[in-house]
Amino acid sequence: MKLKGQTALITGASRGIGEAIARAFAMEGAHLAITGRSGPELELLENEFSNLGSQCRMIVCDLMESGAVEEVWRQTTEAFGHIDILVNNAGIGSGASLKLVMDYDDDFWERMLYLNLTVPYLFSKRALPSMINRKHGRILMTASVIGKTGMSHGAAYAASKHGLLGLMRTLAIETARHGITVNAVCPGPVRTRMLMPRLEHEAGRLGKTVAELEAAWTPIGRLVEPDEIGPLAVYLASREASAVTGQAFNIDGGLLMV
What we know:
Elements: E1 7-10, H1 16-27, E2 31-36, H2 39-51, E3 56-60, H3 68-80, E4 85-88, H4 106-134, E5 137-142, H5 155-175, E6 180-187, H6 196-206, H7 210-217, H8 230-237, E7 248-251
Helix pairs in contact: 1-8, 4-5, 6-7
């Protein structure tokens, strides 16, 4: 029970990586505020986590809407008073607009950067005063290995994840003496609904089937599974990781190694 008694806010928790992190936290004793756009999916998770003994507050929201960040924060603090752990996970995937920069849609660029970068900035800004006052806090970003490289037909995604790592490192520097750590998990290709448009695009571009691409994409010969992200998130959120800050950890099946 590494997170027993700790409260966590996890954005984008209704499925995929966010769901896996939320489940891992609940199994380690954390109390949770979980957000997402899908009420039915969040309700199922709320019931599951409650059965594990976790106090859980589901908050259905679209973080693209004006005032959504403030409303989520209000409901979270109303339920728990404060949060110890903030997981900035909500985002738009790389397959949402498969265009070259010269063909890119400017409005989509703005939406991608807002959700993937500005929303984590806004939540972090809201979380910090209480964390600093209590001399304890954990902020975790779901970034990407693409935040360390680049991506054809994915300029906004790559830019947003590079920016997220810059925000993470700056927050880590500014908060290190206050008992707060700020880190990022950088997944490679993870088996989620969000990945499928990118997977199908890359398979077509390379003249492979989706199954062939999955087997060849990483040195381990498969995609990363969402529940393989959870254990690292638990460690980074725990008191055991009090000396780990400003770091970006790859979980990519060895993708960047080659």
